[in-house]
Structures are given as C-alpha cells and as structure tokens.
C-alpha cells in the first residue's frame, strides 16, 4: 500500500521504516528543514538500534522517500500522523501540529484518505480530527479517522513495532478496520523478513484489538500512566526498605511472582524520564481533571517521581559530607539505556543540582553526550567511563548501560580518589562491588562497605541504613 507518515521523530521514523519492512511504499515528511535535509542525505537525526540499517535499505530500494507534508498528503492513501504533542504550561498536550495537518489533509487531498493518529493524544482527539476534516473538506471527499496508538519503547522500538503484544485500532467504520488489518497483515501473521535477527525466533502473533476511537486513545494514556504508577510504587517501597533494612530487589521479586502483578516495571531507581511518561502522565491528569474525575492518585505518582533526584542526592551528600569542590563522575545521561534521548532525563536534573552545589562533574554516556552538552554545558564530558572517573570522590550511576557491567575494576580502582559507587539503578550485586574494594550505595538496599573496611568498623556500626 502507498502510505504516508507525517513527522519523523522516534515514532514517525520507526513507523515509516518498519512499514517498508513489511512491504509498503512509504513517504515520510518532516517539517523541520534541517532534519529533513539530513534524512534526505542519508544522515540519521537520532539513534535507535536497527533503524539506520532498515532506512538505508528501504531508501536504496526506493521504498522510502522523505519530503514535505504537502507531498505526504498527496501521496498516501493511508496517512499516519506522528507529529509531536509536547506539554503546554498547564500540562495539556499541545495539539496545534495535529490540527495543522488535519487542515492540510482536508484542503489538499484529492481522493479517499484513511487518517490515522499515532501520536499520543488526549481522548476525543479523533472526534476533533473528524470534525475538522469535515469543516475544511473543500473537495467533498470521504475520510476515515482511526486511532492507532504506539507502544514503542525507545531503544527497542523496531522490535516493538515488528513483534508487538498488541495492535490497538480505534475506528468508526469497518472500512478503516479492514485497511488497518491489511496494513499490519504481515505483523499480525508474523511473516516478513526480520531485520533484527538473522534467524528470527518464533513470536506469538499479536492480538489485533478493534475498539472505538475514544477507547483506543484512553488505552494509550492509561497504559503509560499505569506503568509510571508501578515505578513510583516500587520507588516508595524502596524508600521503606532503606528505613527498615529490607532489600527491595527481593521484595520486587516476591511481588512479581504473582502473575497478577508481574515483575516488569518494578525496578526502583532515580525515577522515570523520557518524553513519554512524564508528559503523558501530566496530560492524563489534565484530561481527568477537565472531565471532572478526581484522579489524584496520578498526582502522587508524579510527586513521588519528582522527589527521586533529591532522594538520590541526599545519599550522595550524606556520604560525602561536603559536595562543593569535589570531583564526581556521573555515568549515564540518556533517560534509559540504548537511546541518546535526554528529554526529561533524571540525569539532567541531577547534573544541574550538583553544578549548582559546586561539585566538579565529569560525565560520560555512550550516546547522550552531544545532547546533554547543550542542556548542561558546565560539565566536563568524557569519552569513556574511566576518563570520567579520574580523581573522582564518587561514581554516580544514573543510567544502566550494559557497558558499565563489563568494567575493568582494577583500572577503575587505580583512577579514583575514593572507591565509592552510588548506584541509582541497582546495576550491581553489592558483593561484587565490595569485592573490588569499593563502597556501594544503591536504592532500597542496605549500603555496603568493602570487606576490609567492613571488618574494621564491624563493632561500631549496625547495618548502614540510609534514611528515606
Ligand atoms: C514508554 C512505554 O514503555 C512504551 O510502551 C510507550 O510506547 C512509550 O513510552 C511512548 O509512550 O511512546 P519509553 O519512554 O521509551 O517507553 O521507555 P520505558 O522503557 O518505558 O522507560 C521509561 C522510564 O521509566 C525510563 O526512565 C526508565 O529508566 C524508567 N523505568 C522503567 C524505571 O525506573 N523502572 C522500571 O522498572 C522501568
């Protein structure tokens, strides 16, 4: 099918690329001239595993073209709207980009169009889209509007698109549902050349769930808000564990064994970030408020998350006594591993607070450095974790990159001023870290001293517990 994708952000680019992989001819538009120029020149504007390879192949097979929104409207019978919906000051999603696209579709298109909203939008946006398409429908054409929320995680977006658990389509006609079933046919049947695995392991076919548009829109916001709630919940349990001397890893494991709870999204840490959870949570709270529903539960989820950085900083301050003038290594800047995205990343709030307190920061991230430099310039950015650790009085782990799991501990120990790791992501087993002579502070687990120092202080101290 000839499909257009409007907006070449994480969602749009992944959607466009993966649609070519399942046999469609795709035209992808981008309104940012600089970004469009890059894409037309074969340069990736963002890092996402596997995406570059799929885009290169699709471009050379002439299955993927980049250009203007006008061309996108002209070319695609199905149009996926993947434009940004950033938060306004009051927490509402800014839908101006969606409105502009709707107006252009209504004024320009010269035949039937299936208009699919993929950007995360508040409930009833589909209804507004429908209304605006008919208001500006100068050519008296037929349209269908569908909501097809994305459930792509940055860092595994390609796999999530091609091997999803579910495909949700909110439609108001059998024709729209039929077209979407056709578009996703190869994914539903799981029969396409997988670009990720040479020998693709068998995947269960996803559930194709057809609903009305309002319900599909709510599924997206409710899913993200629920996941955010799980994270804030376990973060509060972690605080409690620190006070009473329990191990949050074990508590989460025990909880997760109940299939009604499940073990996913029960990892405590410095809080959730990225461009989805914080913004979607805010938008969902606003939607509930405007609808007269008291969803203050979600306000608490937000507040708990906002307090995570301060909680982490308290650990650092308590251990270092004085922060001003001390060299600190910060490992990890991206809001999570396998992405270069630093939007609403906990690292940014942490760096700003530490710089403000007068710490001398040396930071490292495998992908996020370029973007972090723009956000927080008063930091020395390093090209590997060892360089960042030089003369450090503490290493602060903010993002759990795999690279940090394969450390040369001896080299690290010889570089630092003080062997102290404050791990905001619980990457390590305490025994492993202390065996290398480091003191280890993590989240929701007792602080652990290296073996030698532990025996020297054994008499004096009860288990070191960080107060929540
Ligand atoms: C999230 C959802 O997982 C996707 O399903 C959704 O499509 C996407 O938002 C979106 O709305 O576009 P993403 O933001 O890429 O995906 O990242 P996640 O993997 O969900 O992680 C979000 C944040 O939660 C990260 O900062 C991560 O470190 C944190 N997190 C996650 C925890 O602190 N603990 C956990 O147990 C899991």
Number-wise, the strands total: 14
DSSP helix fraction? 40-55%
What is the CATH architecture descriptor of the largest domain? Answer: 3-Layer(aba) Sandwich
* Small molecules bound in the structure, each named once: uridine-5'-diphosphate-glucuronic acid
Number of domains: 3
Q: At the fourth CATH level, what is the homologous superfamily of the largest domain?
A: NAD(P)-binding Rossmann-like Domain
Q: Please count the helical segments.
A: 20
Name the shape in a single word.
elongated
CATH topology of the largest domain: Rossmann fold
- Output the structural class: alpha/beta
- The first-level CATH class of the largest domain is given as Alpha Beta
The neighbouring-strand order within the major sheet is 3-2-1-4-5-6
Kindly state the mean pLDDT as a whole number? Answer: 93
Query: Which regions are unreliable across 5 or more consecutive residues at pLDDT < 50?
Result: 461-468
Q: Distance between the terminal alpha carbons, to the nearest Å?
A: 56 Å
Largest sheet: 6 strands, parallel
Taken as a percent bin, the fraction of beta residues is 5-15%
Radius of gyration: 24 Å
What does this entry look like structurally?
Helix 1 links the parallel strand 1 (2-6) and strand 2. With 468 residues, the protein is of the alpha/beta class. The protein folds into 3 domains: 2-211, NAD(P)-binding Rossmann-like Domain (Rossmann fold); 220-306, N-(1-d-carboxylethyl)-l-norvaline Dehydrogenase, domain 2; 308-455, Rossmann fold. The strands form 3 sheets. The chain has a 6-stranded parallel sheet, sandwiched between helices. The chain is built from 20 helices and 14 strands. Mean pLDDT is 93; it is low at 461-468. The radius of gyration is 24 Å and the shape is elongated. The protein starts with a strand and ends in an 11-residue tail after the last helix. The structure holds uridine-5'-diphosphate-glucuronic acid. Uridine-5'-diphosphate-glucuronic acid binds next to helix 10 and helix 12. Residues 120, 150-154, 224, 227, 231, 265-267, 269, 272-274, 276-277, 280, 335-336 line the site of uridine-5'-diphosphate-glucuronic acid.
């Amino acid at each position: 099918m000839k499909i257009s994708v409007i907006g070449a952000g994480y969602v749009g680019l992944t959607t466009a690329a993966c649609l070519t992989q399942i046999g469609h001819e795709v035209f992808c538009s981008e309104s940012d001239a600089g970004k469009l120029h890059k894409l037309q020149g074969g340069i990736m504007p963002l890092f996402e595993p596997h995406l570059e390879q799929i885009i290169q192949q699709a471009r050379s097979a002439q299955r993927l073209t980049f250009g203007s929104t006008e061309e996108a409207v002209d070319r695609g019978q199905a149009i996926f709207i993947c434009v940004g919906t950033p938060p306004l000051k009051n927490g509402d999603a800014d839908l101006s980009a969606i409105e502009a696209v709707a107006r252009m579709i209504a004024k320009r298109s010269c035949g039937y169009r299936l208009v699919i909203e993929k950007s995360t939008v508040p409930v009833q946006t589909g209804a507004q889209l429908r209304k605006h398409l008919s208001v500006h429908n100068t050519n008296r054409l037929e349209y269908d509007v569908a909501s097809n929320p994305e459930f792509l995680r940055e860092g595994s977006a390609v796999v999530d698109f091609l091997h999803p658990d579910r495909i949700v389509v909110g439609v108001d006609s059998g024709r729209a549902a039929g077209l979407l079933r056709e578009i996703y046919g190869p994914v539903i049947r799981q029969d396409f050349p997988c670009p990720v695995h040479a020998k693709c392991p068998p995947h269960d076919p996803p559930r194709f769930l057809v609903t009305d548009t309002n319900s599909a829109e709510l599924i997206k916001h409710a899913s993200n808000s629920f996941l955010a709630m799980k994270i804030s919940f376990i973060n509060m349990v972690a605080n409690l564990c620190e006070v009473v001397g329990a191990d949050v890893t074990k508590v989460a494991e025990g909880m997760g064994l109940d299939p009604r709870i499940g073990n996913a999204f029960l990892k405590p840490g410095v809080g959730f970030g990225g461009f989805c959870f914080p913004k979607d949570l805010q938008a969902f709270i606003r939607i509930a408020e405007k609808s007269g529903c008291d969803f203050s539960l979600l306000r608490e989820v937000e507040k708990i998350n906002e307090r995570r950085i301060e909680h982490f900083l308290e650990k650092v301050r308590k251990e270092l006594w004085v922060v001003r003038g001390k060299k600190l290594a910060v490992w990890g800047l991206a809001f999570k591993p396998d992405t270069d995205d630093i939007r609403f990343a906990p690292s940014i709030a942490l760096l700003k607070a530490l710089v403000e307190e007068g710490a001398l920061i040396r930071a490292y991230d495998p992908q996020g450095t370029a973007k972090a430099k723009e956000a927080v310039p008063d930091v020395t950015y390093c090209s590997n974790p060892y360089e960042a650790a030089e003369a450090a009085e503490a290493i602060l782990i903010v993002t759990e990159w795999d690279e940090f799991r394969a450390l040369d501990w001896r080299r690290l120990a010889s570089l630092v001023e003080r062997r102290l790791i404050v791990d905001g992501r619980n990457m390590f087993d305490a025994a492993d870290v202390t065996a290398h002579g480091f003191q280890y502070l993590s989240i929701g687990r007792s602080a652990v001293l290296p073996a030698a120092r532990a025996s020297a202080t054994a008499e004096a101290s009860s288990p070191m517990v960080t107060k929540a």
